[in-house]
Amino acid sequence: MLDYVKSFEFTSTIALLVYWTPLAICLGVYFVKIVRMYREDVEKRDSGKFYTPRLTVGAILWMLLLTVTPAVNLFALVFDCMADVFKWLGAFLEIPLVRERKE
Predict the structure, then answer these.
(1) CA 9 to chain centre
(2) Cα→Cα distances 72→19, 21, 33, 52, 103, Å
(3) 38-88 confidence digits (pLDDT tens)
(4) Quick check: 41 and 51 in contact, CB under 8 A?
(5) Concatenated DSSP letters for 45-86?
């Protein structure tokens, strides 16, 4: 059993499941969030009213730190990113099976 745990196949599988998969998902979700926050800030700035920007350098660095830190990216995946993933999946799967009747 100890030899199996020390083997390359076991450790690379654990690394793939525990670090690289959450890293890839968090990078994708945070990239979309950053783009969305940027667009919202540009729209609020152009409206002429006073606004407080949501997208800052600190916010981008915080998302990057959450993504690349081992074990922390698991918590970021579960508690921050999966809500957005489920929203996108729900919107994608909201396709009706029966089309509307044309009259």
Answers:
(1) 28
(2) 9, 13, 18, 28, 55
(3) 999 999 999 888 889 999 999 999 999 999 998 898 899 888 888 888 888
(4) yes
(5) HHTSS----S--HHHHHHHHHHHHSTTHHHHHIIIIIHHHHH
